[in-house]
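Morning F.,

Quick status update on the modeling queue. The single chain you submitted on Monday has been processed. Sequence for confirmation:
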Amino acid sequence: IDNALNSQVSLKHYDNISISALVFQMLAILSEKSISFLEGKFDDDNITSLPERLRRAIVFIHQHYDENITLEEICSQCFISKVQINRLFKSYLNISPVNFLISYRINKARDLLQHAPLMNIKEISLSVGYSDQCYFSRIFTKIVGVPPTEFRSRTLNFDEKKHIEEGNSKK
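Structure tokens below.
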């Protein structure tokens, strides 16, 4: 992110295209970091500090995010009530279990949109647990701010050198 910002700071001329490109480059970097954070935050060393039932829920979500799982299924895997699981997630992670699942799925979708160019949006939505592509696109757009196709297009087609050269030629 620092490199992206520094390359933009060195440019004296800001236009909508360069700002837009910078934002999407930063989104791509942040999505990679958030996936790493979600996966890294709950590795074997760190997860042991969480209550057993919360650990079970996180592991279950990580293993089954691509399936049509419900809060009831998560609760039954952890031998806990809906009220208790909501309380655990809120107190330790500051997020509800359902929103944790949604965030995890969307982060996985971002990763696939960036690194699996041969998969279409329908395949990606199915692979992260959404059987309805339209619903997936609505959720993705709500969370990320742009539709999946635009996210993919902007992150895959971003050429930093070309972008900097275009910015320099506009001076």
